[in-house]
Amino acid sequence: MATLFSFRRCPYAIRARLALAMSGAELDLVEVSLRNKPERMLELSPKGTVPVVELDDGTVIDESLDIMLWTLNNHDPKGWLGRDEATQKEMLKLIEDNDGDFKHHLDRTKYAIRYDGADPELHRQSANQFLTVLSSRLEKQPYLMGASAKLADWAILPFIRQFANIDRSRFDATTHPRLGAWLDEGLASELFQTVMQKRSRWAG
Could you tell me the CATH number of the domain that includes residue 117? Predict the structure, then answer.
C-alpha cells in the first residue's frame, strides 16, 4: 500500500489529505514529528517537508499540489478539477498566488520573530490584498470558482484558516463577512473534520 507522510496541522498536508479523502485513496499514514522526522521520509524527500507520498511502484510525490492533482486525476467524484482547461488554468493561478505572495506575508505575520526586520503589521496589510481578491469572488458566487467547491477552494482554505487563527476577531473585523462564512463552512464540513482526525491509516 502507498504511504503518506503528513503532519496534522500543516496547511500543505491538510490540503493533500482533503484531496486524497475526496478521491477515495487508501494509504498508510505516518504522522511526522517535525523535531524527529522519519529516516524513510528523508530518504524519499531530502528537503524534509510534508506531505510526501510514496507509491507502491516507488514513485515519490513531495509537493502538496502535485499530490492533489495526482489523486484527483485518478478519481474526481466531485469534479474539483473543473470541466475545461481554462478553469483549471484559472484555479492554478489563484493557488499560485496563495502559495507565493500570500504565504510569504502569512509567515511574516504569524512568525515575524523568525524573519529579520519583518514588520507583522505591514505583512498583514499585504496579506489582506489577497483576501480582498478572494472576497470579491465570493461576493458574486458561493465558492471561489462558482456554484460548487473545487480544487482552488480546498487548496487555499487551510492557509486562510492559518491566517485567521492568528487573531480571529481581527480577521472577522477586517475582511468581508462572506470570506469568513466560506472559511467556517469549509472547516465545519464533514470532509475537513474527517481529515483532521488522528489515525494510523488513510482511507478516503
Answer: 1.20.1050.10
Q: Which three cell numbers stand for residue 35?
A: 523535531
pLDDT tens sequence across 134-182: 999 999 999 999 999 999 999 999 999 999 999 999 999 999 999 999 9
Sign of CA dihedral 78, 152, 23, 162: negative
How many domains does the chain contain in total? 2
Please compute, for residue 149, the number of CA atoms within 13 A of its CA located in the half-sphere on the CB side. Answer: 17
Domain boundaries, position 104: 85-189
**How far, in Å, CA of 87 to CA of 70, rounded?**
17
Is the link from the previous residue into 51 a cis peptide, with omega within 30 of 0? Answer: yes
Q: Are 62 and 154 in the same domain?
A: no
User: Nine-digit cell at 154?
Assistant: 480546498
Same domain as 89, residue 71: no
